[in-house]
Model the fold of this input.
Amino acid sequence: MPASPTRRIPEATVARLPVYQRILLELVRAGTTTVSSDRLAEMARVNASKVRKDLSFLGSFGTRGSGYEAEYLLAQIDRELGLDGDWPVAIVGLGNLGRALANSHGFTSRGFRIGSLFDVEPSLVGTRIRGVTIRHLDEFHEAVAEDPPAIGVIATPAADAQGVADLLVGSGISSIINFAPRVLAVPPEVLLRYVDLSIELQVMSFYLSHRDQLGTVAASPALPHAVGLTSGEPA
Amino acid sequence: MPASPTRRIPEATVARLPVYQRILLELVRAGTTTVSSDRLAEMARVNASKVRKDLSFLGSFGTRGSGYEAEYLLAQIDRELGLDGDWPVAIVGLGNLGRALANSHGFTSRGFRIGSLFDVEPSLVGTRIRGVTIRHLDEFHEAVAEDPPAIGVIATPAADAQGVADLLVGSGISSIINFAPRVLAVPPEVLLRYVDLSIELQVMSFYLSHRDQLGTVAASPALPHAVGLTSGEPA
DNA sequence: TAGATTGTTAATCGATTAACAATC
DNA sequence: TAGATTGTTAATCGATTAACAATC
Done:
């Protein structure tokens, strides 16, 4: 019943697993024990065949005639996503955005913890967020040597983003999420992802401005939707 | 030389246009006048063929032998994205995240403006961000009647997100960007996009935990990368 | 001209989806 | 059993990419 040992999960499926994960989390909290692919599909706004195909890459966890046991499926997805691990994350930049991130769901959910926080602003250095003291960026290398982060998050002003990226890469961090509205240059082996309101707004703008034109409207944007660019090659 | 009048831009291309847009903006600011598909591809971390194909959907704007005129290409992309329009955006929720959004690049760049801001917190209502006064959510319907937003942004705590979504949809807004870590139910014709740190972190976690395993690593995540789910059908 | 680079073709690859046999 | 729903197949669709003729 487990999938073959050499299962290779398609990228498009990986992108949807966190979505199913969140849906299942909400369902489980609401007391749901069993869920069908139809229901999952409705909530994720995707095709039910796609849900079944996606889940089939992880194994055969459903029961014909009744559906999936929500809690069990959730555990399987967590395992697949590596959320049974403990990934320390370093956040650089604790302005409004950085503070929002540090206080976000991302770090209260399984798999992640705030490893370290950095800023250069004297009034912020030394203060604490969620029990973690903000350190000066000058201390970056020693802090990282103590507790090496798995993922670096850039939440600085755009002008500082490349410098911080260089620092992260220089310290051996190979996964970066960039919230600064700036295109970054990093070595090709570094996993780099962008999260960006402007880009989302622009994609919306495209669909808004093409919506009512003749019949010229393109297909609706697919669900694992773009927010930016980029990624690194796997090792 | 313009593309056929019935050009239909593929979804994957639409997702990359904002990326090219940003790169061109940075190049133009840095004084670059001409750029090749190779250079653009390098900065966007995609294949050069893909850049040329993407741009060819907009028309034939390059010059064989030398490349693209940066400023002109930028203008064409802006036009295609509808950034020559003026889209008022309403932001609901002005905690750290909402404030970060209101002050972000998204609203200082072409095409968008902060139309209205809403919160329920008495200490916030009446204060101003970038010249716009925060109003109480109770005033939502009258405010929206005065100046109907094209796009609604949800930046509230997760628990309030569905209620706000209902309010937005009820007032006729058909494009929503949700920053709250909650799955929303909205009618199928509503364009809904999610932006979410947790989801980004989870996708990173997957690639991190599969990186060194045997040769089992999946393909690197494609650049228009997933951050969530969903979208509405075009009208 | 010689070198460079576009725009486009066509082959390939990956993702989506309807359909249905398997089976609870 | 009858009804429901999975897991998987196979056809289809869309996206990627190498290659190269066109052409500046």
